[in-house]
Structures are given as C-alpha cells and as structure tokens.
Amino acid sequence: MAFIFFGTKETPIGVTEQLVYCPACECDAAADIMVLSSYFHIYFLPLFPVSKEVNIICKKCGYKRYGSGFNSKTLKNYAELKGEFKHPCYTFIFPAFVILIILLTVLYAK
In terms of C-beta density within 10 A (0-12 exposed, 13-18 middle, 19 or more buried), how is residue 35 classed? Predict the structure, then answer.
C-alpha cells in the first residue's frame, strides 16, 4: 500500500509596511502586511499555486486580520503590490513540465 501525502501549504512571499484602513481604529494607519502564497503539493513538492492571502497587523492599535484576500478590496494600492508579491517561480515548474509533455506528445503523434 502506498501512502500519498498531498495538500496545500502556505509560504510567505514577503513583508512590507503600508497605509491601510483599520476597522478597529476607524482610520488609515500604518500596518505590517505579510503576503502568503498557498500552493498544492504532493510529497512536499509544489505542483501549482492556488491563492494568495494577506495578514495585516495595525501598528496603531495592534488589530490583527489573518487570511484576508490579496485583492483591491483589501488593499488600496493593490496594483503596486501585485507586481511586487508574485508566486515563487518554483511553483510553476510542474505545470510547465506537464504542458511540455502534452505538447511533445501531440507533435510526435502526427
């Protein structure tokens, strides 16, 4: 019997400090932002990225928000941060390998 270990895992992509709206303070305040990349893995080898999440900690009052979506609804300057926090390149190796195998199979089948 073979045991297959699979699931999702989160990896931090980066940390920055940004001005965000805090619902506890009810004002715009500086906050620490940690962006996490979630990816699907088998035997601890990343196969493909699934999503990104943001953990936000307000520096003024200490209010913590974990697991917020990485989108324009959560962050005002989402367009700037989107380019800065990308999924790691190694999470795209398996999908690229599968596409390459399919293309080679199709090309050599003709």
Answer: buried
Q: What is the pTM of this model?
A: 0.72
- Tens digits of per-residue pLDDT, 4-51? 778 888 888 889 998 888 888 888 888 999 998 888 888 777 788 888
pLDDT in tens, 44-68: 777 888 888 889 999 999 899 888 8
Amino acid type, 23: P
Tokens of 83: 């380019």
Residues whose CB falls within 8 Å of the CB of residue 34, separated by 6 or more in sequence, listed in order: 12, 14, 15, 54, 55
Residue partners of 11: CB distance under 8 A and separation at least 6? 36, 37, 38, 39, 88
How far apart are the C-alpha atoms of 31 and 22, rounded to whole Å?
A: 9
User: What is the token pair recorded at 77?
Assistant: 């300057």
